[in-house]
Write a structure and sequence with these properties.
By secondary structure, this protein is mostly beta strands. The protein has one helix spanning 4-10, and strands at 18-19, 59-60, 103-108, 112-117, 122-126, 141-146, 153-158, 162-167, 172-176, 191-196, 203-209, 212-217, 222-226, 241-246, 253-258, 262-267, 272-276, 292-297, 304-309, 313-318, 323-327, 342-347, 355-360, 364-369, 374-378, 393-398, 405-410, 414-419, 422-428, 442-448. A hairpin with a 3-residue loop joins strand 7 and strand 8.
């Protein structure tokens, strides 16, 4: 059983899956998303050659075959399926630069952040002790640096100190921490440059959190790799794997929600199944323990469209645009006005408008509403809720000044969003994770990532 204290000591991250419009969920995404301009439903777009999928709640990406017009998605140009994605064209209420759209997806790791540019290359910033920025060094950077050897990226996902990118065509490349097999390349060592995940050529969505990652394959199977000692790999064993292993019994998944301690999948019938750490009720099956190394059904009959995984909890975007969460909740992480754990889904209350996308951090979650606003709940001690202060909140609060958002993603104690083709971040900046040239302090409201070009 994994404890929150242990996570903090090893600095595991909570990522989210995201998909670009040209999608990161979360795993993560960051996360989860639903089609723009309509209530959340199964999305139609996928990377070239892939079958349709929802956002995994931990990755972010875009379909490079889709010409992005720079305007919000319409009913015929859907937001992310877990492999196509959040459109970069919505305008932001904050003053974006005149450079035009620079990014199409963003994924927050523990203390670093990465984005896919409009040309399919990847840039990262923040902490880099394990090479998670992918620039060939282990030197931190408060400015974006280029990931070496990655082109044609369509999704991005970030874990504690590793990052993975889905490449158009279905291959996956990862870089950074690798001691637990996080990179999936058959080795258990870190790499400051991207390496190919072994045997994976038909991925349609990816998610990464903590020390592991998962991918949705063409046809609906799920594979995972990396740390598995709490059952995170879902293959019936509580042990690490440095190559992808199939999650037991899943053949018809359409979305992933990859958390640090637990992983979940939306199945074709919109039901949800989870596996991994259940100490705080993160599997949503009505119990708090034991952990499970195979998928178990989330109770309550929820009809889900997408997911976002946190440190030891999960949130789901329902087909009607509401949000439900389960797992760890003492800091308001479940968004239901309470400060307690829940082993089955509880409804997030007070969201303004129907949610379209989700992004989860360690102890907080955010939603993009239909009007492009971002609302967050949970721990706020580093300003990660973006509402101008450092108070936690058990109910959603609105991120200041941010409009036209198309994606949101959370890290340990920072949050980032995509709006107007620009990336905006807020929260803990002590490792340069906000990308604004600063490596200290906090920002309780969004700041623009600089030098992303």
């Amino acid at each position: 059983m994994r404890s929150v204290t242990c996570f903090a000591l090893v600095a595991l991250a909570s990522g989210s899956l995201y998909a670009c419009a040209s999608g990161g969920d979360a795993g993560s995404a960051d996360d989860a998303e639903a089609p723009d301009d309509e209530s959340p439903v199964a999305e139609a777009g996928t990377p070239d050659g892939a079958t349709p999928a929802y956002d995994s709640g931990t990755a972010t990406g875009y379909d490079s075959s889709i010409a992005d017009s720079g305007s919000p998605d319409t009913a015929t140009s859907h937001a992310d399926t877990g492999a196509t994605t959040a459109d970069s064209g919505a305008s932001s209420g904050l003053d974006a630069s005149d450079a035009g759209p620079l990014a199409v997806a963003v994924a927050a790791g523990d203390r670093h952040t990465c984005a896919i540019r409009t040309n399919g290359t990847v840039a990262c910033w923040g902490a880099n002790e394990a090479g998670q920025l992918g620039d060939g060094t282990t030197t931190a950077s408060p400015w974006p640096v280029n990931v070496v050897g990655v082109a044609g990226a369509v999704q991005i996902a970030a874990g504690w100190a590793h990052t993975c990118a889905l490449i158009q065509g279905g291959t996956v490349m990862c870089w950074g921490h690798g001691a637990n097999g996080d990179l999936g390349n058959g080795a258990s060592v870190q790499s400051a440059t991207a390496v190919a995940v072994t045997g994976l050529t038909d991925a349609t969505a990816i998610g990464a959190e903590g020390y592991h990652a998962c991918a949705l394959r063409t046809g609906g199977a799920v594979v995972c790799w990396g740390f598995g000692q709490d059952g995170e790999l879902g293959n019936g064993a509580m042990m690490d794997s440095n190559v992808p292993v199939p999650v037991t019994g899943i053949t018809n998944a359409i979305a992933l929600g990859v958390g640090s301690g637990q992983d979940c999948a939306v199945l074709q019938d919109s039901s949800v199944t989870c596996w991994g750490d259940d100490e705080y009720g993160g599997l949503g099956n009505g119990t708090s323990g034991p952990d499970s190394d195979v998928p178990v059904a989330v109770v309550g009959g929820m009809s889900a469209a997408a997911l976002a995984g946190g440190l030891v909890g999960e949130c789901a975007l329902t087909m009607s645009g509401t949000v439900s969460c389960w797992g760890y909740g003492p800091d308001g992480e479940l968004g239901n006005g309470a400060s307690a754990n829940a082993s089955s889904p509880v409804a997030v209350t007070g969201l303004s408008g129907a949610a379209q996308k989700l992004g989860a951090g360690w102890y907080h979650t955010c939603a993009v509403a239909a009007d492009g606003s971002v609302q967050c709940w949970g721990m706020g001690t580093s300003g990660q809720l973006g509402n101008g202060n450092t108070a936690s909140s058990a109910l959603p609060v609105r991120v200041l000044g941010l409009a036209g958002a198309t994606q949101v993603t959370g890290g340990e104690s920072h949050t980032c969003a995509l709006a107007g083709g620009q990336v905006w971040c807020w929260g803990d900046d002590s490792n340069g994770a906000l990308g604004n040239g600063v490596s200290s302090g906090t920002a309780a409201a969004p700041v623009q990532v600089q030098q992303l070009f």
